[in-house]
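B., you asked whether I could sanity-check this one before it goes into the benchmark set. Here's the sequence:
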Amino acid sequence: MTTTTTTPPSRSKGRLLDWKLLIGIAAVGALATLSLLTGVYDVFGADDGGEMFAITRIPRTIALILAGAAMAMSGLVMQLLTQNRFVEPTTTGTTEWAGLGLLTVMILVPGASIGTRMFGAVLAAFAGTMVFFLLLRRVTLRSSLIVPIIGIMLGAVVSAVSTFLALQTDMLQNLGVWFAGSFTSVLRGQYELLWIVALVAAVVFAVADRLTVAGLGEEVSTNVGLDYNRIILLGTGLIAVATGVVTVVVGNLPFLGLIVPNVVSMFRGDDLRGNLPWVCLLGIGTVMVCDLIGRTVIMPFEVPVSLILGVVGAAVFILLLLRQRRRG
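And here's what the prediction gave me:
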């Protein structure tokens, strides 16, 4: 593992639920209401408006909430376990591994249910994340910037394999749709598996203290009686489940897990338990804002959320690199 400069945890002292968090919840609630009211179809004037509202608007808004929280939370846990500010599922190859697992299931079982596809994506994401962690243990790193470079290179190799398989099986178009990162196709009956990430968030909150200790390194964890390898496996499994589910239902949401935890830690330090609600709220708000922009900028057409997140995330990533460089 490699280490990088962290913000002192003392800055995150205070109650978990305070007036600032309540304001954040209210702001996210306002964005959710705006999401429910935004769209080309007139759900208030049409005869079947109420039915369309229940089939499309409500599922889409719930999916925005769950997917945003899941990917932001995954980035927070991954950064903590690797002790590196620049890692998250899309900079470590986890998303690409999930896509490869999804593609493999579709090739082997063409009529696979969404649950089967999700299982394949989660399994591949777990395997890929473990490969990334094993690489970090066996490579001597002199700079924290090398970590995301290794992850991006690994993801590029996996993506190339996925593209080759898609070309050979005439599924390249499907692969492009899966990685578009759009909420356009989210309907009632197709998004319910995303509720799994709510359970993942609950587990992360329950074991937050252990994950925090594991983030200090194997030696410190062992000294306080913590099974370091078991906690790493648990954290990897939680990341894999969240990433796999979001990839199957929504697609790729780049840089979300990179932007949100870094912004939160700048203001609140590195306390996982205290930061988790803020990370989830900011992740939800970021995805909702990007989705609202995508739905309105060229209405009645839509711009994929992944496109807007990619532009914003790339800019923030560069700023973080420059900030790290100034710190030496």
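One thing to flag: Residues 9-327 form a domain with the ABC transporter involved in vitamin B12 uptake, BtuC fold (CATH 1.10.3470.10). Otherwise nothing jumped out at me.
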